[in-house]
Amino acid sequence: MNDRKDTIITLTINGQETAVPAGTSLLEACASAGAFVPTLCYLEGVCSNASCGVCLVEVEGARSLLRSCVQKAAQGMKVNTTGPRVLRARKTAVELILANHPQDCLTCARNGTCELQSLSERLGIREIRFPRTKKKLPIDRSVAGLVRDNDKCILCGRCVAVCKDVQTVSAIDFAGRGSRTRIAAFMDRGLAGSPCVQCGQCSVVCPTGAIIERDETAAVWRALADPKKTIVVQTAPAIRASLGEALGLEAGTLVTGKMVAALRRLGFDKVFDTQFAADLTIMEEGSELLARISGGGTLPMITSCSPGWIGFIETFYPALLPHLSTCKSPQQMFGAIAKTFWAEKAGLDPANVGVVSIMPCTAKKREAGRPEMVGAWQWWKEKGTVPEKPFADVDWALTTRELARMIRGAGIDLATLPEEDFDDPLGRSTGAATIFGTTGGVMEAALRTVYELVTKRSLPSLDFTAVRGLEGVKEAEVDLDGTKVRVAVVHTLGKARIILDEIAAGKSPYAFIEVMTCPGGCIGGGGQPVNIDAAKRLRRNKAMYVEDLRLPIRKSHENPAIGALYADFLGKPLGHLSHGLLHTKYKARKV
Known about the structure:
Number of domains: 3
Strand order of the largest sheet: 2-1-5-3-4
Radius of gyration: 25 Å
Low-confidence stretches: none
Distance between the termini: 48 Å
CATH architecture of the largest domain: 3-Layer(aba) Sandwich
Helix content: 25-40%
Number of helices: 20
Mean pLDDT: 95
Structural class: alpha/beta
Number of strands: 17
């Protein structure tokens, strides 16, 4: 059979003639004909191993039912997706999965977003007909960002595929045989004993609650109820384009002002914006890049704001750590500034200030707990006014999913809330900071500022489209008054590996590289709403640029709050105080 994509074949699906390109799977062909075929293991662009047995269809002339996710459509095929034999087989396949699945839907974090739960309801399953055959396994709570519960695992293989093929980390794999088959880290040592970087992509693609973020909402609720504490919150750029989706709105809906209102109603004392610290990051990172170019520093310089990426280079390419920017991420810069500059101005004891960050990322939980992230405590200690026990710059990092659960639990209807503004001064930001939320955004924000710092002229256009889009690797060239600087943008750790191999071989042509851990950058982060697909990522991506255009200031160096911070506190970019609070060093990670 000719499988060329420009060859069109016709087949009949549920009595309707359908034309599709040769090489199309039966699953895709059925979808194009409007015939729903359920799946559990299949996920476009990630996994298609035909393990779940749910996507069965009946093809005239075939002796058995076919798994549509791996079976190619053929000329003249007659396919039935709704016959009694098909429906019976699908139902049985799900019932067999449910036999070993815990019946704890009411208390599961994935209640309402679980694909297995949804499919069971769709197939009309009302009883568990088969006995349990597997032994219950212990829950893996060994890392800061993720929790694995193999009792809820249906062995779909999505997590294995995304970890191995997309992220090239291979922290988990199938282990055992027969009824003892399970997903495990090497030697069953848990994620802490694996090269896992806690990016959380496994939790986004998991159809059940087998891998979820470590929930810290109870601790935040307790802090909010403590009258001795001042609890402030910062929200990452990508949250404004995904929180609405987690609460039932269309993907890509911008909810910036409503999100601020919701956070105030949850009881936060101040609602600030991580985008303030993103503008601060551009000032420090842009200055660092120029210093490296003019002073013969290590090039290419690579961004350091994505903690999953930091874990990756620390684990797999420690020899290339000098290429990392020394800048902390915006999350950590914000925490350091909130507990020094802002706390001092507000007359607050920094030990009683709690910083909560709302992030699209599970790796941010690990980052917040890194032992070196105590810059504010070190600053106060030099002044002799804090207890000996260190306190973290950021106390809790919640995912988009956790915030959505808090809002629902408090009975807050996001859609009906008024639009409210962030609090000053750590709530002021620019369009450049907004686009940090998508791949290419950090690079574009940096170029808007670096170009003007060098040339003393504005870019011909602030829309640096060469680094936009969801392609895996993008590159561009910028002329800085006669010095041509080549830059690159990559997202996913698999694509980062390509760039790192070039650097290791001495073949990299770039001066500056942006790396984001997750597909699409933060819009596709491991803490974002589940059941993600390429179309949803694209809508979130577009929302970031819409927000950028809406803001009156679109360049980080023009943010008046950032200017005031340097004038009143930090002094200058790359200065002594900036280095102490806003920069750090990374080291090889041993597994």
